Amino acid sequence: MIQPIKVLIVDDESSQRSGLSAMVSAWGMQPEMAAEGNEALAKLADFPADVILTDLNMPGLDGFGFLSRLRESGDMPPAIVLTAYGNIETAVKTVHELGAYWFLEKPIQPRTLEVLLRRAAAHAGLREEKRNLERQLGYKGSLGQLVGASPRMQEIFALLQQAGPSRACVLVTGESGTGKELVARTLHALSPRRQGPFVAINCAALPESLIESELFGHEKGSFTGASERRAGCFEVAQNGTLLLDEIGEMPLATQAKLLRILEDSKVRRLGGKHEFEVDVRVVAATNKVPEEAVRGGLLREDLFYRLNVFQVHLPPLRERKQDIRPLAEALLADLNRKHECHVAEISPAVFEVLERHSWPGNVRELRNVLERAVILAGEGAIEMQHLPAFLQNRAPAGVADSTAGRTGEAPVPAETGGVRFQIGTTVEEAERGLILRTLEFTRNNKTRAAEILGISLKTLHNKLKEYGSSQDQAAGA
After folding, report:
1. Domain residues of the chain, as ranges?
2. Distance between terminal CA atoms of the chain?
3. Per mean pLDDT, which range of 62-66, 192-196, 393-397 is the poorest?
4. b (16+ CB within 10 A) / e for 157-187
5. pTM here?
6. Rounded to whole angstroms, how far apart are CA atoms 149 and 427?
7. What percent of the chain has pLDDT over 70?
8. Averaged pLDDT for residues 328-357
9. Domain 141-315: CATH class, spelled out
10. How large is the average pLDDT for residues 335-340?
């Protein structure tokens, strides 16, 4: 839900305050009133104004002093100064010296005031978003949802900040799992279209017979099964951003139609007679080397050049190992929220193993490994026993055996919610211990336990039935 613009009105004349408040309310904004500067400063503590509308000549703390205090605090919303005839010089001085947004001479023209209030609020929003993105960029090397402290990722962040505000097409390349969709979302967040829709379509996931309908829409009766008119992705993404993922998998005939849309900004639904204009920024992505796709006849050369205004290449995770730690920490916070867990940290031994792995599945594989570990740990820290077996085997000498107990003993539950096995435990015993401990962790929720274990629910039931039969046989022996 969009919040109304909050306007703080500061004026010593009661009738002026009431009249301005009534106008602001009629425009769908939320007013708050103060009679002079000190009262206004007190009101701001509970009323975070988007815009300030203030008179200059007031008893107590006047408008100039009020804005000076706000400027010194470093938290000054855009301010529109109201001035009577003869005080224009002071109003201009206020704008220049104190950074007020604008000034208006009394009597006020309502339409002019409304336009200025909305522009000032929009200016404040853009300024705050810029500050947030700059803070994110300085925090562990992040931009939007992208994380990376390596020089290569910093170069990508700089390029995205330049390309984001433009209307130009962007081609994002990189192996599967490197975060191409996150790049597209970051471009959208950095653009003036951020309030518009972000629509993503995977060209490889749609059969050739449906892809044009999904992209361009269709009219009722245009083909068998078209029982009603349907808007395509270009219509849905109007005034926003459209991500065409795996563009190299799009049929060549559809690529030709896409090229024309990019050049003319006009779309015709399947079965339609008329074209209509669209205003959509297109970001394309592919896990193929685009030049090779062109040579292989999978990607039209003219479409490649049209999309390749900016090219952002995401390096694989194995080529930017120094990003693993900040990535893991960012993913840990996200996964804690998702699964309502309370894992505080990742142990140094685990980090060493994560940084040794080559990560063929890139960031997506890292996320899956950490998701499993967060669920198994539940709270405390992620330790070696929470990692999949293939990573535990990569542990440095001495780390893997540091938690081992006496040979031949049964599985021992770890304090953090995992399972620890001693040397000599058989595969059958280890499997049984892991299944039973996972069931204990999920409070006997078999569906969730099966998901954590990576097996089907049917397999889990069969295993439990098998364990029950073993117990019955042992009891009868």
Report:
1. 6-131, 141-315, 319-476
2. 68
3. 393-397
4. bebbbebbeeeebbbbbbbebbbbbbbbbbb
5. 0.57
6. 41
7. 85
8. 91
9. alpha beta
10. 90
Q: Do 283 and 170 contact (CB within 8 A), yes or no? A: yes
Over the stretch 284-320, which tens digit does the pLDDT of each residue have? 999 999 999 999 999 999 999 999 999 999 999 999 9
Number of residues written out for the chain: 477
Does position 204 have pLDDT exceeding 70, yes or no? yes
Closest CA relative to residue 142, chosen from 186, 195, 178: 186
Distance CA 325, CA 50 (A): 38
Provide CB contacts within 8 A for 196, sequence distance 6+.
Answer: 237, 238, 239, 240, 241
Biggest distance spanned by C-alpha atoms of the chain: 107
Beta bridge partners of 277: 266
Banded pLDDT at 472 (limits 50, 70, 90): very low
User: Has residue 134 got a pLDDT over 60?
Assistant: no
**Hey, do 6-131 and 141-315 end up sharing a CATH topology, with the first three levels equal?**
yes
Beta-carbon contacts of 326 under 8 Å, excluding residues fewer than 6 positions away, are: 140, 141, 142, 147, 148, 149
As a CATH number, domain 319-476 is 1.10.8.60
- Which residues face 140 on adjacent strands? none
Q: 6-131: what fold?
A: Rossmann fold (3.40.50)
Q: HEC string of 267-320?
A: ECCECCCCCEECCCEEEEEECCCHHHHHHCCCCCHHHHHHHCCEEEECCCHHHC
Distance CA 272, CA 195 (A): 29
